[in-house]
Amino acid sequence: MKKKGPLYALFLSLILLLPGCSSLTVLNPKGPSARTLSDTIILSILVMLGVLAVVYILYIFVLVKYRAKKSNEGYIPEHEEGNKVLETIWIVIPIIIVAFLSVVTVKTTNAVENQAKEYKDQTPLVIYASSSNWKWHFSYPEEGIETVNYVNMPVHRAVEFRMYSFGSITSLWIPQLAGQKYAMSDMLTTLHLSADTEGSYMGRNANFSGKGFAHMEFEALVMSSKDYEDWVKEVKETAPKLTEKEFKGLLATDYLGRKTYSSTHLEFSPPPGEHSEHMSGGGKEMDMDNGNMDHQDNKEIHPSPEPSSETEFDSKPNPEVEQPLPSSPVDEHTHDSNS
Amino acid sequence: MDLDKFKVHGEPLIYGAMISIALATIGILVGLTYFKKWGYLWREWLTTVDHKKIGVMYILAALLMLFRGGVDAMMMRLQTAAPEMKFLDAQHYNEVFTTHGLIMILFMAMPFIIGLMNVIVPLQIGARDVAFPRLNAVSFWLFFFGAMLLNISFVIGGSPDAGWSAYFPLASLEFSPTVGNNYYSLALQISGIGTLITGVNFIVTILKMRAPGMKLMKMPMFTWSVLITNVIIVFAFPVLTVALALMMFDRLFGSQFFTMANGGMDMLWANLFWVWGHPEVYIVILPAFGIYSEIIATFSKKNLYGYTSMVFSMLIISLLSFLVWAHHFYTMGQGAMVNSFFSITTMAIAVPTGVKIFNWLFTLRKGRITFTTPMLYTLAFIPIFTIGGVTGVMLAMASADYQYHNTMFLVAHFHYVLIPGAVFAVIAGFHYWFPKVFGFRLNERLGKHSFWWIVISFNVTFFPLFFLGLMGMTRRMYTYSEESGFGPLNMLSFVGAVGLAIGFVLLVYNIYWSTRYMPRDTTSDPWDGRTLEWATHSPMPVYNFAVVPKVRTRDAFWSAKQENMPLFEDKITKIHMPSNTGKPFILGVIFFFLGFFLVFSMWIPAIVAGVGVLIMLAAMSFDRDHGYYISVDEVMATEKKLMRGETV
């Protein structure tokens, strides 16, 4: 079996090339939701390695044993119809494996769609995350503050992101804290997460949304409760209010650095109606078709940025942003980044 | 009229493409005139209704598109080979990955497979032609001109840039103001209609035109896979037709099906697209399973193990393929219940697929395996596709998918499925059936060189992407920062891509070399084949079989050889054949112009072209051409010549 040699060498070199497991952000979780997902992934990898092993061993065995050689020249294999017992075996065993994985999937999907067990007794901190052309707006309705392109959260606290979009579909993803979920214009989606460790984590839009997609990253900074309270207090004291006019200006700009405000846009530009899945029992008004009408009306007032009149291959570089976009979990402190 | 909107400006790459397209066109025109080939081209190819020639044209077009899509791929891997590369800008990169996806799936994999089925299926079932030969020509020319329409977008007006899945509202006029997505809706629509016609044509061909004695459960596995595939086509493509029509209304006429305001639903597009899009995956993969089944049986000298369970597994896959579309947007917030349902249906596909893998392995068992080039591709398919399959199961788990969705992990997975599952298969089928169509084999030594380049480089290119996905790299990023740490693995992937390119160039060189130097084959059964296509001459005469074969067993030709069961018992009689027609070609040309005018909202010419389409359709339906007969003498003369190894 000549072909296995290079293949194994390849696998080995790839494993050696890996700069260590810690750089696999998905498998390096820092919160219960991401940990559930990471455990699920590792479990599925192990089960699948088992399946691969069976196929590969059988494969190598038949190829080595039954290749055409001088010794079996002229040998004409017999007609073989199949074997009911064998075929049943390789129908039943995969069904068992799939059934097992299905149970795991249903359990873990339910787990990550809800607040983590460890944080069940807390009322989550609600953060509205909305996207508009290649930037993220984070509104904290309880605190009455809003940030752009960065989000601060207290450690050991249940957080509930409610996502929507002022334009194309985006997907909010902080791989070390939780899996991603789409943000759309006509529906509110919910993401539960919480962090066990303080630190700065990479967050980004994971769904292609046009020209500035590659730069649509933000920093998720998890800080101690005290630091978080101090930060909120500081923002309320020093940051300017977010006026409707200012907000329109933000929506109309393609790229922005970090911004901080001491009020949210939720009052004058409410989010779309919530999705039925998350509304059950909420007692809120259902408006499945169009989402919240206020939000729709709002579209007239806040149209998405005018498409640029230039055609595609304008070779001009990306517009300079006021501040460098956070490209990785940098250890930059953001308390003072008021606009 | 505003000429500005035709212009695509800036990049030297675009000018290069324009010049090379112009030079190639001039070269072809001058060449045809100089060698006085215009008449030949018209009589023998443009007007042909012969399924073999149509198949060859499909395959030629697919090979061209393979290189177009391959160049796109190289540009993408080069752009992401190192952090902060300045080779392409964001807009250009977006157009490149969008057209790469569209071209590779719709204008490379599918036509290649349809080409092979055109050439082989009628031969495998012992038929003289497909059920509707003229419609077959219509199918081809609609596909061809749809593909051309998409290709000129590169130099006229701008290519689609919202991803091959063209999610709304990104693909709407508001966020993609160029004509690129107009091209998307119209080019796909035109070629999609062609595919739908093929679907109907082949279902009827296979159900109604099999040789006497060939019961459904005696059909060769490739024919079975084609039958099931075409049933999927007939159910899936109307959805695409409707979705593209709505898209066209949104973009050209200001309707608001998928917009953000006024009741539009962006999720509706995602649902419609994937209700077609997921079955589409099986449209390209099931025939590949058929090709592999033929090749494994031939080169291990054994009949296919577990024939019945192979057929049923394909039927189950085809049913499940319609029940899994929502796994393409687990993250759209449909909640745990819906996601769990689609997780289970998706994972269920692994069961019938696993049945096939084990049946292939047991076909090899106790066989006498020879490692020819087509067999090498088939054997490489098994371990690589299994990786694609198990990562597919991993992706199917909704919860875990929240972490993989839209990342490089997904990109790695679908390349691990589609390249061995479709590309290796068409290359294997190409090598395997080449001597049938042209009467000589491709060179084995060059074939194996090319094989090793392709298979090893494939793994070098795509295996690193699994890790990049787990590192947090999403797909469709035109650049990334140094600190992200994505650099080294992307560079490795680029190195692999270069290797792949070398492999494919070697493949084409092999075709050239073999055409010049390979000895002509006189036996017409170079691989010691098992199915009916090997029972006629290579290359086969226009009527395929002088006498329609009588089938008694599966692997009819093999039994005929081994157990002396006669295949051809009847006397030669006169043969009825359809006559050539130029109308399908003209219809294709008019459709091309209709699409082009609509892309640029040029209403008056578009209406003229639309009327032209109607006139051509009317002309074709009132055509009273009943074909012609080949007399017994003529058949005898042809057969005699072919026996002596001459070409006709």
TrEMBL record, chain A:
<dbReference type="GO" id="GO:0042773">
    <property type="term" value="P:ATP synthesis coupled electron transport"/>
</dbReference>
<dbReference type="InterPro" id="IPR011759">
    <property type="entry name" value="Cyt_c_oxidase_su2_TM_dom"/>
</dbReference>
<feature type="compositionally biased region" description="Basic and acidic residues">
    <location>
        <begin position="274"/>
        <end position="303"/>
    </location>
</feature>
<dbReference type="GO" id="GO:0005886">
    <property type="term" value="C:plasma membrane"/>
</dbReference>
<keyword id="KW-1133">Transmembrane helix</keyword>
<dbReference type="InterPro" id="IPR036257">
    <property type="entry name" value="Cyt_c_oxidase_su2_TM_sf"/>
</dbReference>
<dbReference type="InterPro" id="IPR008972">
    <property type="entry name" value="Cupredoxin"/>
</dbReference>
<keyword id="KW-0679">Respiratory chain</keyword>
<feature type="region of interest" description="Disordered">
    <location>
        <begin position="263"/>
        <end position="339"/>
    </location>
</feature>
<keyword id="KW-0732">Signal</keyword>
<dbReference type="InterPro" id="IPR002429">
    <property type="entry name" value="CcO_II-like_C"/>
</dbReference>
<dbReference type="GO" id="GO:0009486">
    <property type="term" value="F:cytochrome bo3 ubiquinol oxidase activity"/>
</dbReference>
<dbReference type="GO" id="GO:0005507">
    <property type="term" value="F:copper ion binding"/>
</dbReference>
<dbReference type="InterPro" id="IPR006332">
    <property type="entry name" value="QoxA"/>
</dbReference>
<keyword id="KW-0813">Transport</keyword>
<feature type="domain" description="Cytochrome oxidase subunit II copper A binding">
    <location>
        <begin position="122"/>
        <end position="234"/>
    </location>
</feature>
<dbReference type="InterPro" id="IPR045187">
    <property type="entry name" value="CcO_II"/>
</dbReference>
<feature type="transmembrane region" description="Helical">
    <location>
        <begin position="42"/>
        <end position="64"/>
    </location>
</feature>
<dbReference type="Pfam" id="PF02790">
    <property type="entry name" value="COX2_TM"/>
</dbReference>
<feature type="compositionally biased region" description="Basic and acidic residues">
    <location>
        <begin position="330"/>
        <end position="339"/>
    </location>
</feature>
<keyword id="KW-0812">Transmembrane</keyword>
<keyword id="KW-1003">Cell membrane</keyword>
Automatic annotation (TrEMBL), chain B:
<dbReference type="Pfam" id="PF00115">
    <property type="entry name" value="COX1"/>
</dbReference>
<feature type="transmembrane region" description="Helical">
    <location>
        <begin position="269"/>
        <end position="292"/>
    </location>
</feature>
<feature type="transmembrane region" description="Helical">
    <location>
        <begin position="56"/>
        <end position="76"/>
    </location>
</feature>
<feature type="transmembrane region" description="Helical">
    <location>
        <begin position="96"/>
        <end position="123"/>
    </location>
</feature>
<keyword id="KW-1133">Transmembrane helix</keyword>
<dbReference type="GO" id="GO:0006119">
    <property type="term" value="P:oxidative phosphorylation"/>
</dbReference>
<dbReference type="GO" id="GO:0098803">
    <property type="term" value="C:respiratory chain complex"/>
</dbReference>
<feature type="transmembrane region" description="Helical">
    <location>
        <begin position="12"/>
        <end position="35"/>
    </location>
</feature>
<keyword id="KW-0679">Respiratory chain</keyword>
<dbReference type="GO" id="GO:0005886">
    <property type="term" value="C:plasma membrane"/>
</dbReference>
<dbReference type="GO" id="GO:0004129">
    <property type="term" value="F:cytochrome-c oxidase activity"/>
</dbReference>
<keyword id="KW-0408">Iron</keyword>
<keyword id="KW-0406">Ion transport</keyword>
<keyword id="KW-0375">Hydrogen ion transport</keyword>
<keyword id="KW-0813">Transport</keyword>
<dbReference type="InterPro" id="IPR036927">
    <property type="entry name" value="Cyt_c_oxase-like_su1_sf"/>
</dbReference>
<keyword id="KW-0249">Electron transport</keyword>
<dbReference type="GO" id="GO:0022904">
    <property type="term" value="P:respiratory electron transport chain"/>
</dbReference>
<dbReference type="GO" id="GO:0020037">
    <property type="term" value="F:heme binding"/>
</dbReference>
<keyword id="KW-0472">Membrane</keyword>
<dbReference type="InterPro" id="IPR023615">
    <property type="entry name" value="Cyt_c_Oxase_su1_BS"/>
</dbReference>
<dbReference type="InterPro" id="IPR000883">
    <property type="entry name" value="Cyt_C_Oxase_1"/>
</dbReference>
